[in-house]
């Protein structure tokens, strides 16, 4: 009997997740797959299961594939990135991923990836994975004159172009990130961590794991009855939480 191999698969689009699961069942019958709907679930699965292989979508809200990859690699797993973007695929491969898959994934391409991963499992793995993953993350991060100026966000069945100076805050919400302005909101699929890397840190502060706020939009900071910090805004009525990890930003203000 062939040895069973354990894998974690993270894909936040249900149809694509199911299609990849079915294709993997045919291409690699010995593979046991724990399917995850988002990066948070995948991170928990990787920590609990310590898989030998991880199939990870690079771009997922809140916790992206790169974050999950770090945890998977620390446990000795090989990573296959999935992405709809050619530029991400090329960079992932250059960074030393076992392989990458462009969406929609063809059966022929999946067979090639499976063959490559199975061969890598039989060999010693390189020890420079973390450094190469750092390089990939740096390549994907906007810098200097590549800071975000405009955001194309979904509003119903259309796309709205939002200037970065209109944004009051970004908030991770299930599979999407809310882009909230003074008079409305829209949705993007770019993870909060990736957005944060493309924002001017003097203008936007992270105040919670999935929450980034424009500093100039903050009206006041106070403690609630439980002793936790909260933000009130100048242009919005909602109250936003501040986690203990970021509360020191407001000391002395």
Automatic annotation (TrEMBL):
<dbReference type="GO" id="GO:0003677">
    <property type="term" value="F:DNA binding"/>
</dbReference>
<dbReference type="InterPro" id="IPR039420">
    <property type="entry name" value="WalR-like"/>
</dbReference>
<keyword id="KW-0597">Phosphoprotein</keyword>
<dbReference type="Pfam" id="PF04397">
    <property type="entry name" value="LytTR"/>
</dbReference>
<feature type="modified residue" description="4-aspartylphosphate">
    <location>
        <position position="57"/>
    </location>
</feature>
<dbReference type="InterPro" id="IPR001789">
    <property type="entry name" value="Sig_transdc_resp-reg_receiver"/>
</dbReference>
<feature type="domain" description="HTH LytTR-type">
    <location>
        <begin position="151"/>
        <end position="253"/>
    </location>
</feature>
<feature type="domain" description="Response regulatory">
    <location>
        <begin position="6"/>
        <end position="118"/>
    </location>
</feature>
<dbReference type="Pfam" id="PF00072">
    <property type="entry name" value="Response_reg"/>
</dbReference>
<dbReference type="InterPro" id="IPR011006">
    <property type="entry name" value="CheY-like_superfamily"/>
</dbReference>
<keyword id="KW-0238">DNA-binding</keyword>
<keyword id="KW-0902">Two-component regulatory system</keyword>
<protein>
    <submittedName>
        <fullName>LytTR family DNA-binding domain-containing protein</fullName>
    </submittedName>
</protein>
<dbReference type="InterPro" id="IPR007492">
    <property type="entry name" value="LytTR_DNA-bd_dom"/>
</dbReference>
